[in-house]
């Protein structure tokens, strides 16, 4: 069983493409090579294959990266399932994980939400999608500054608040306040719950 993230950039036409696409490519390269593990296509859409254990953290890494840039957001559909055909290009691979993710992104474009998940279990889908709807009330309203801090914490889990204060040239108390505003401890708990629910599939 694998996870497939299919997404598209919201408001991409109002931003400097070279900036966000370079940063997104650099992020995705941490998790595999293109076009086998990920691909950016049709201008502002992308797809990433990963393990089910990593999918929530990868989603948040992408979300925080894009939200740290002015006026941008991202829509993400998470598909969990099988990979029945593996191509040299992820966009030509197939299986329930790809179908679930691709169809779900179309649904998201119609219903106005920014993230959802489709697995092999209706019960798991119900529980995790309620969780994602609540979580997105926070994620969708991150400021650029909050998104930057969250992204650094996700990508470098050994970071201390002192490390972040130096990186962003702010006080440690400012770092602490941003992490509290972003409910970072709750995000870590949510990731653990997410992994536990998916492991039940």
UniProtKB/TrEMBL annotation:
Q: Which InterPro entries match?
A: SatD
- This chain belongs to which protein, by name? SatD family protein
Organism name: Chryseobacterium defluvii
């Amino acid at each position: 069983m694998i996870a497939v993230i299919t997404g598209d950039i919201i408001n991409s036409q109002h931003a400097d493409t070279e900036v966000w696409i370079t940063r997104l490519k650099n992020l995705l390269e941490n998790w595999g090579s293109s076009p086998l593990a990920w691909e950016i296509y049709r201008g502002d859409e992308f797809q990433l294959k990963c393990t089910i254990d990593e999918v929530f953290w990868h989603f948040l890494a992408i979300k925080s990266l894009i939200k740290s840039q002015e006026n941008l957001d991202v829509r993400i559909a998470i598909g969990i399932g099988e990979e029945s055909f593996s191509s040299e290009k992820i966009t030509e691979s197939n299986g329930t994980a790809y179908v679930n993710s691709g169809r779900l992104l179309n649904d998201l474009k119609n219903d106005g939400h920014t993230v959802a998940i489709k697995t092999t279990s209706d019960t798991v889908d119900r529980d995790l999608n309620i969780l994602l709807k609540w979580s997105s009330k926070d994620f969708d309203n991150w400021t650029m500054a909050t998104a930057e801090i969250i992204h650094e914490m996700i990508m470098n889990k050994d970071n201390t608040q002192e490390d972040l204060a130096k990186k962003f040239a702010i006080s440690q108390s400012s770092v602490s306040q941003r992490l509290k505003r972003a409910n970072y401890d709750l995000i870590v708990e949510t990731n653990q719950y997410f992994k536990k629910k998916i492991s039940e599939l």
